[in-house]
Design brief:
The protein is mainly alpha-helical. The protein has a domain of 80 residues. The chain contains four helices and two strands, in the order ααββαα. Strands 1-2 form a two-stranded antiparallel sheet. The structure holds zinc ion.
Length: 148
């Protein structure tokens, strides 16, 4: 019985020990990577980026060669984030996924715009035909019998 308890205690110790905070080393290099910044403009990669045209984008600093590139980038970040190697991969993926979601809803909106009016017209036509057909049937029924 005692041996079973000992083995059990061993298992518990093995499971708990790796979670101890003694192995929490190697976390101090995240602060230095957060200060990284791009040295080339993401919109015009041939141009050098300037600290005068810097923005905070998803928690990272992004620099541009001029204000126009900044505006371009902010209006369509998914087209340019691929040029920013200092951004975390999750940020790049999130930005691209978000823009794909946006274009998908825009396509759906356009589809509704294109087809909603013809569909409504069709429904209205069907209702009109139905009413007209019923009116014809009723008028035939109420017609006086033909005289001999
Ligand atoms: Zn520029």
């Amino acid at each position: 019985m005692n041996r079973v308890l000992l083995i059990h205690a061993c298992f518990v110790a093995c499971a708990v020990l790796p979670m101890c905070p003694s192995s929490a080393a190697g976390t101090d290099d995240s602060t230095s990577s957060a200060r990284l910044v791009n040295d080339h403009c993401p919109v015009m990669p041939d141009e050098f980026a300037s600290p005068q045209h810097e923005i905070q984008f998803h928690g990272s600093a992004v620099r541009f060669c001029c204000d126009e590139c900044k505006v371009k980038f902010l209006s369509e970040p998914a087209a340019y984030v691929g040029h920013l190697s200092h951004l975390p991969a999750e940020t790049v993926q999130a930005v691209i996924a978000q823009s794909q979601r946006q274009t998908r809803t825009e396509q759906a909106d356009r589809w509704v715009d294109r087809w909603s009016r013809p569909a409504l017209l069709g429904v209205a036509l069907l209702i009109a035909v139905g009413i007209a057909g019923r009116a014809v049937v009723r008028s035939r029924r109420t017609q006086p019998p033909a005289s001999p």
